[in-house]
From TrEMBL:
One of its GO terms (biological process) is lysine biosynthetic process. The keyword Transferase does not apply. Belongs to the isocitrate and isopropylmalate dehydrogenases family. Keywords: Magnesium, Metal-binding, NAD, Oxidoreductase. It holds the Pfam family Iso_dh. InterPro entries: IsoCit/isopropylmalate_DH_CS (IPR019818), IsoPropMal-DH-like_dom (IPR024084). This is Homoisocitrate dehydrogenase. Transmembrane segments: none annotated. Its cofactor is Mg(2+). Residues 4-340 form the Isopropylmalate dehydrogenase-like domain. PROSITE patterns: IDH_IMDH.
């Protein structure tokens, strides 16, 4: 038995951090089935060469994989004919309906609780991101409208994923983020549907505590008292904003991992972009990519392997001897990789 993993470094520092994550997976030995890696193309660079940001072959090969790791794409700031984000397309084509982003700070000692230890579970397929925008010209001037789609089906499956993730965490708390005081129909449906998840699985989620919060006050409290949150579940747009705000709580973007998850496939992806300002210098922080590999394993059911990676990374950060410049250190990507391997 082997674990088939697609590797899509894509652009910029994606090419520097994904190989590091691969090496860490290889170092796990018998904690996971022997990984088999398949290199795949996507992104801006392959678009400029071939005219496609997401070659058909990449998608077809991923369908046969157990999981994947995606680096980062460089998106042009102007609109380019024929180009669209491969990550958005992948989410759609592989039905990766959830974006899961754990944000965890590293405590001074292994015994202490981290100050921030939460997971943002963001719905990934609908809300305003269905991109049905219409511009019309009226007698009073231009008028723009956007459609916001919220379905019971999508709200239920994201809600269920949030409950399942909470079950695997010590605090077992889910907070629904919404604005149903104003958007009573759309956010009302999201809220009601997520609230209704436990009733559909009698007994399964009895240990999970359910809370809810209006999105604006949730952001305020997230910044002032992040310790009150465990699992936050939100529609697409709120989730997008909250997950970046939460990432700011733990310092560098180079630390924060994510996965795009569906029922049949999971793709790890560091939260950061292709970082053109440090590309090719060998100083990109590989930790977000390494933690994304751990998170991918966790979703595939290999918690032991994932724990081994996370514990090693925590030790390296805690000791503070081998850190890349974004964390105030002067070490290279490879130095950090080697430090993690040594702890493992
Ligand atoms: P960015 O995340 O690439 O960089 C922001 C800042 O954080 C830069 O100063 C960068 O050097 C630093 N940084 C990011 N990751 C780091 C790491 N692992 N180690 C050390 N420092 C790190 O965001 P930016 O500059 O706004 O976007 C650059 C390109 O990336 C753009 O083309 C953008 O469209 C794309 N992008 C892609 C994303 C993705 O693939 N999911 C997400 C965000 C941006
Ligand atoms: Mg974002």
């Amino acid at each position: 038995q082997s674990l088939k993993i697609g590797l899509i470094p894509a652009d910029g520092i994606g090419k520097e951090v994904i190989p590091a994550a691969r090496t860490v997976l290889e170092a796990l030995g018998s904690d996971i089935p022997k990984p088999e890696f398949i290199d795949l193309l996507a992104g801006w660079e392959v678009f400029t060469r071939s005219g496609s940001a997401l070659p058909e072959e990449t998608v077809e090969t991923l369908r046969e994989c157990d999981g994947a790791l995606f680096g980062a794409v460089s998106s042009p700031s102007r609109s380019v004919t024929g180009y669209s984000s491969p990550i958005v397309a992948l989410r759609k084509q592989l039905d990766l309906y959830a974006n899961v982003r754990p944000v965890v700070s590293v405590a001074a000692t292994p015994e202490e609780k981290p100050a921030v230890d939460l997971v943002v579970v963001r719905e990934n397929t609908e809300c305003l991101y269905v991109k049905q925008e219409v511009l019309t010209h009226t007698a009073q001037g231009k008028e723009a409208r956007a459609t916001r789609l919220i379905t019971e089906r999508a709200s239920h499956r994201i809600g269920k994923m949030a409950f399942d993730i909470a079950l695997g965490r010590p605090r077992k708390q889910v907070t629904i983020i919404h604005k149903s005081n104003v958007l009573s129909v759309t956010d009302g449906l999201f809220r009601e549907t997520v609230r209704g998840v436990p009733a559909k699985y009698p007994g399964q989620y009895d240990s999970v505590k359910l809370e809810e919060q209006i999105v604006d006050s949730a952001v305020y409290r997230l910044i002032r008292e992040p310790e009150i949150y465990d699992v936050m579940v939100a529609p697409n747009l709120y989730g997008d904003i909250i997950s970046d705000a939460a990432a700011a709580l733990v310092g560098s973007l180079g630390l924060v991992p994510s996965v795009n998850a569906g029922d049949k496939f999971v793709m790890g992806e560091p939260v950061h972009g292709s970082a053109p300002d440090i590309e090719g210098k060998g100083i990109a922080n590989p930790i977000a990519a390494i933690r994304s590999a751990a998170l991918m394993l966790r979703h595939l059911g290999y918690a032991q392997g994932a724990d081994r990676i996370d514990v090693a990374v925590d030790q390296v950060i805690r000791e503070g001897q081998v850190l890349t410049p974004d964390l105030g250190g002067s070490s290279s990507t490879n130095d950090v990789l080697n430090a993690v391997l040594k702890k493992m």
